[in-house]
Amino acid sequence: MIQDIAPWRLRNEFMDAAPEPGDLVIDMSPEGVLTPEGELSFPTVEEWRAFGMDAALLYAFRLVRQGESGAAESTEERFFLALREKGAEAPAPQGWRRAMPAALRGEFPGPMAYAAATGWHLFLWYDNARHCGRCGEKLAPSATERAMLCPACKAVHYPRIAPCVIVAVTSGEKLLLTRYARPGAKNLVLVAGFVEAGETAEEAARREVMEETGLKVKNLRYFGSQPWGFSGTLALGYVAELDGPDEIRLDTSELAEALWVERSHIPPCPDSASLTMEMISRFSRGEL
């Protein structure tokens, strides 16, 4: 999955740090991340400033690589997020481009794809957390934690993370696969949805399966989780068994199709970045 970047690790502890020339800049805009044409990497602070860029640089996180013994962190890359005023121009110098991070996840797997996804999550939050939702005053970054502070009403605003569930529903040798109704959705995926207020993740899993397909499930068990920065979510994966008839009653407002697929007939997954594709692949191999 996208977060599986060993021997690298993403360390997201907050630091009140100033950028140095060799640090890396994640320069985001609504058009995507600034990266060289044909690859996925980021400019150093020195390169970025030589481009004539004008934006505040705020510490985001670091990537560290374990030493051969596994006991020491021998390599470190620090990342800073470029934050512009709302609506400010975000150019791409010659030889560079702006690309949406989600489109790069399968093309360039590895630690930089994970950094781009996490950077996108932070960019969207900072971009939408410019003014206090309580009083409307302009917010300022905290010097002690990853938060935005209101100087007027003293409200503290933290990054938004939306929990969602992904459910692999099985019936013997068959897996329930679905396809979203939204334009451009072509891949077969698992039932998924957001956790509602006052609801456990397990309750959300049962509810989403029922709402989208009309099926009841039992023997729900936890599979794993995944930070998915492209949509600002934390995905929680579950495996469940069909409980009752297997007739599907499709919610056409959410799904274009839902079908039972035999283990041996599951199509190859387009990439291994997502929790959904990891769960589908494991079922097809008899590991789920």
Automatic annotation (TrEMBL):
InterPro entries, alphabetized: NAD-cap_RNA_hydrolase_NudC (IPR050241), NudC-like_C (IPR049734), Nudix_hydrolase (IPR020476), NUDIX_hydrolase-like_dom_sf (IPR015797), NUDIX_hydrolase_CS (IPR020084), NUDIX_hydrolase_dom (IPR000086), Znr_NADH_PPase (IPR015376)
GO function term, MF aspect, one: NADH pyrophosphatase activity
Protein name: NAD(+) diphosphatase
GO BP: NAD+ catabolic process; NADP+ catabolic process
Entry superkingdom: Bacteria
Keyword annotations from UniProtKB, A to Z: Hydrolase, Magnesium, Metal-binding, NAD
An example Gene Ontology CC term for this record: cytosol
Reactions accelerated catalytically: a 5'-end NAD(+)-phospho-ribonucleoside in mRNA + H2O = a 5'-end phospho-adenosine-phospho-ribonucleoside in mRNA + beta-nicotinamide D-ribonucleotide + 2 H(+)
CDD domains in the record: NUDIX_NADH_pyrophosphatase_Nudt13
Chain ranges passing through the membrane: none
Domain Nudix hydrolase residue range list: 159-285
Family that this chain belongs to: Belongs to the Nudix hydrolase family. NudC subfamily.
Species the sequence originates in: Mailhella massiliensis
EC number: 3.6.1.22
EC class: hydrolase
Cofactor: Mg(2+); Zn(2+)
